[in-house]
Write a structure and sequence with these properties.
Order of helices and strands: HHHEEEHEEEEH
Shape: globular
Number of domains: 2
Strand order of the largest sheet: 2-3-4-7-6-5
CATH topology of the largest domain: Thrombin, subunit H
Distance between the termini: 24 Å
CATH class of the largest domain: Mainly Beta
Radius of gyration: 18 Å
Length: 179
């Protein structure tokens, strides 16, 4: 079992091996990870690891979570909020965000999500939070496909928010986390 292999290592080596092992588990088996309970990691219904989206592609529905405002210029939430959002097309993103102040929608590094008819969105204070989908390979785990970035007048139907596309940055993330 992995916990027996890692418990006797110096902290730096422990972190490196654990992170490498977690990365591999997102693609292979959850069994060993669920057996691992050493060094303060307590998994349960509310605490599960998340994988990074390495494949990219279209994800029609995704879930954003955050502690931000619950309406445009409103108060921040007292409890963690979650909202299911719909992916907008690249064309819809470009139309909703024409070139302003030198920035424009770039589908290589960004993706747009929102809702066509409901006031469902992320808002001020949610930036940096995850946009996730259910992991198709590992039951009860999620894959982070985006990071909440910017939007205009949150909660406006038909007006998507921008999310940083995680799959584009995986090589960079891995170069930092798993040198």
């Amino acid at each position: 079992m992995l916990s027996k292999q890692l418990n006797d290592l110096p902290l730096k080596e422990f972190k490196h091996k654990l992170l490498k092992w977690l990365r591999e588990q997102c693609f292979y088996s959850l069994k060993e990870f669920m057996e691992f309970n050493g060094n303060g990691i307590r998994l349960g219904v509310s605490v599960v690891p998340a994988c990074l989206d390495v494949f990219g592609g279209d994800h029609y529905k995704a879930v954003a979570t955050g502690w931000g405002a619950t309406s445009f210029l409103g108060d921040v939430a007292n409890t963690l909020q979650k909202v299911t959002l719909t992916e907008f097309t690249d064309r819809e993103c470009s139309v909703n965000y024409p070139v302003k102040k030198g920035s424009t929608f770039n589908n290589t590094i960004q993706v747009c999500y929102g809702d066509y008819s409901r006031k469902a969105d992320t808002c001020q204070g949610d930036s940096g939070g995850p946009l996730t989908i259910l992991n198709h390979r590992l039951h009860c785990m999620y894959t982070v496909v985006g990071i909440t970035s910017i939007g205009v007048n949150c909660g406006t139907p038909g007006q998507p928010g921008w999310y940083t596309k995680v799959s584009h940055y995986v090589p960079w993330i891995e170069s930092i986390v798993w040198p």
